[in-house]
Amino acid sequence: GAVVSQHPSRVICKSGTSVKIECRSLDFQATTMFWYRQFPKKSLMLMATSNEGSKATYEQGVEKDKFLINHASLTLSTLTVTSAHPEDSSFYICSAALLSSGRGIREQFFGPGTRLTVL
Amino acid sequence: AQKITQTQPGMFVQEKEAVTLDCTYDTSDPSYGLFWYKQPSSGEMIFLIYQGSYDQQNATEGRYSLNFQKARKSANLVISASQLGDSAMYFCAMRPFGNEKLTFGTGTRLTIIP
After folding, report:
1. Which residues neighbour B71 within 8 Å (Cβ) at sequence distance 6 or greater?
2. Which of residues 12-41 of A touch B (CB under 8 A)?
3. B84: helix, coil or strand?
4. A88 by DSSP, 3-state: which?
5. Which of A24, A22, A26 has its CA nearest to residue A7?
6. pLDDT tens string B37-75
7. In angstroms, rounded to a whole number, what is the distance separating the alpha carbons of residues B25 and B102?
8. How far B21 CA sits from the closest chain A CA (Å)?
9. Cβ contact (<8 Å) for B45 and A95?
10. How far is A74 from chain B (nearest CA, A)?
11. Nearest to B33 among A46, A105, A112 (CB)
């Protein structure tokens, strides 16, 4: 259980276009999802917290108009990179929070990631 | 604010040997959780082990154990009997209780040598 999927796994786009990345919790409902960005050989940096039915909470330095997040249902959050530029090329990972009965804590279950390349 | 420090950018270990990956942290929160994740070259983040700051015993999950020294603010991951499939990036992370935002360290790339 607790599977999170992302689509697409890899996308190449031209500079100036917009790209949408989907994050789905397949076997559970997630009121909270997270979006991370990871540069090559670097750590994960939290971009925003996505809350179902309300606006996302962005981390300092993340452009809200550049990275649009929509959490329209309890199983789907989307990240749209608007007017993408080469510097937006990165590995984007989502996660969904779920109470883990075995450990008694809310864990984050991660998607497999989406590699975005902007030409 | 929380900070995680992983001082080993890369490690090479002979297969079947034990390996310790270092992690120190800094936080002003009285209660927090510590996590270790494995990231293979495919990119997915795989949960390995969790330690709560108030847990009396060190956490263990199969071949993984966490050497938690609260006074020193360290949470080292120990992998026993390493296998070739253990080659990956390993991230230490933490979050305060009541807050779901994870802060990650910079990671350690572990390579197991046959």
Report:
1. none
2. 32, 34, 41
3. helix
4. helix
5. A22
6. 999 999 999 999 999 999 989 999 999 999 999 999 999
7. 13
8. 16
9. yes
10. 17
11. A105
